[in-house]
Specification:
It contains two helices and six strands. The chain is of the alpha+beta class. Strands 1, 2, 3, 4, 5 and 6 form a six-stranded antiparallel sheet that branches. The chain starts with a helix and ends in an 8-residue tail after the last helix.
Length: 121
């Protein structure tokens, strides 16, 4: 009986672990060109965080992104623009960020110095 319970617990733990997305660290240009439109452009891809319309506010953890205009930031459209950041995220493996786990805004110089990053815009 003891072995059956142990086997059941291990099986359940493995099933849960298999369904957990692995966190990825993504660093690059965080872009907010207009209301409710957010992207992160890193060396590998342009990751959609959210777009106006149906998926606005759909990404869990969006509240972790502070007002990027309060730090090193480039204004491009009224109160909107871009900054440099690193984020711990979960993705769909293609081109969407599905969950934000953490956010850290960096100096613009960090992204500007990274030759692997395409300049935003």
């Amino acid at each position: 009986m003891k072995y059956r319970i142990t086997a059941a617990v291990i099986t359940a733990a493995l099933a849960i672990a298999a369904n957990v997305q692995a966190a990825e660290t993504r660093c690059g240009w965080i872009e907010n060109p207009t209301p409710a439109n957010w992207w992160l452009e890193d060396a590998e891809n342009t990751w959609t965080i959210m777009t106006q319309g149906d998926d606005a506010d759909a990404v869990e953890g969006m509240e972790l992104i502070p007002d990027i205009s309060e730090h090193d930031y480039v204004k491009t459209n009224g109160n909107y623009g871009y900054a440099c950041a690193c984020m711990s995220v979960e993705t769909d493996g293609k081109d969407r960020i599905t969950r934000i786990l953490s956010f850290r805004q960096l100096k613009l110089a960090k992204c500007r110095a990274d030759k692997a990053l395409k300049f935003p815009g």
